[in-house]
Amino acid sequence: MIIAKRRASIASMIFIVILMLVIALYWQSVSRLWIAVTLYDEDKIVDNFVTLYHTFESNRIPPADTPFTFPVARKPMPEFVPFQESELNISSFLKESGTTGLLLIQDGEIRVEEYFQGHEESKLHISWSMGKSFVSALIGIAIDEGYIKSIEQQITDYVPELVGSAYDGVTIKHALQMSSGVRFNEDYGDFHSDINRFSRIIAFGNSLDEFTASLERERQPGTYNHYVSIDTQALGMVLDRAISPKRLTDYLQEKLWHPLGMEYPAYWLKDKYDMELALGGLHVALRDYGKFGWLYLNKGSWQGQQLVPAEWIAESITPDGQHTLPGVNAYSSNREGYGYQWWLPEGAEDEFLARGIYHQFIYIDPDKRIVIVKNSANHRFTQRGHNWNAKHMALFRGLVQHFSH
After folding, report:
1. Where is the Beta-lactamase-related domain positioned along the sequence (predicted)?
2. Which residues fall within 8 angstroms of residue 182, CB to CB, at 6 or more apart?
3. Contact assessment for residue 244 and residue 198, using Cβ atoms and an 8 Å cutoff
4. pLDDT digits (tens, 9 = 90+) for 74-92
5. What is 46-403's CATH topology?
6. Where on the phi/psi map is residue 229: left (φ > 0), alpha (ψ -120 to 50), or beta?
7. What's this model's pTM, rounded to 2 decimal places?
């Protein structure tokens, strides 16, 4: 009996030691997985959106040696803006949509800059899919510099690892326009969706390239606009190979971050193989998002220097083909039109925007000389019945109307 108890005690001790070793070895992965699973929970979402780069693998981009600061000439916002047959109370809507930061730049001056829910000027906020528009800019620059010959080239010309995958036969242009034909479920409310499976891949630091290669074809490329975040990841792979040995992070720092005089550092999430999360892993301060928007408002010109080719920007925000047109469209799963990783809203004259999940926006109205940036951490994002998109467009257009008179 005594010997049996001793053996049981020793076995228990061995089990505890092994368990502790396993926890020690995999603690970081388990911690990241827990964050990924609870990322959008009401009590965690705000903090998660400004701290992910602390927990996950990331590359740092230092601030510019000579930071640029917009002059500040604040003006009060209106209390209401028109919305359908009624009005939208701005302060109520900002709270309802989980706003963390709101910036309005007009004529090169800051008119509005407000922070909520503990956010502040120096904090970095995750871009989510607004980061896709940064990747589009880098593609345009890489073409101008000869790293990429043409958007009519196939992705596999640069990324042979994707031969035989859903991206075999897909051109760079197809991916830019979200018309790759790749099957992908982007429902953030579905635990088993492709995008949430992808989130768990990120949590473990596993290969983003391998996940991209694992997807299957659904439609003929170039015929139907369907939002597939991994299209941008494939574009990131093209850039990565084209500019090698530089990294995407290096290229962003060299071509945009320092020339734009970004005031704060940025971080770009990556996997353990040093491949950046091209589809939306940037962490950037509110004002620095504003600088990127102001660059595009000015057709890629910044203080006399052409950072992004003007022709590329014009092509990026112009519908090209039936499947990219805004409105009810049999060739698109979206009501909004789509350019080269930029959204083209219904009823737009010259407006366009970068947009990320949970209500991240860079809204640009060139003829009114206004850029609006909105960061949010809205735990209600997946709830139906809020009419989020229509309300945000009413907010942006109402603010433009107010500040233009």
Report:
1. 102-374
2. 166, 167, 170, 215, 216, 217, 218, 228, 230, 231
3. no
4. 999 999 999 999 999 999 9
5. Beta-lactamase (3.40.710)
6. alpha
7. 0.92
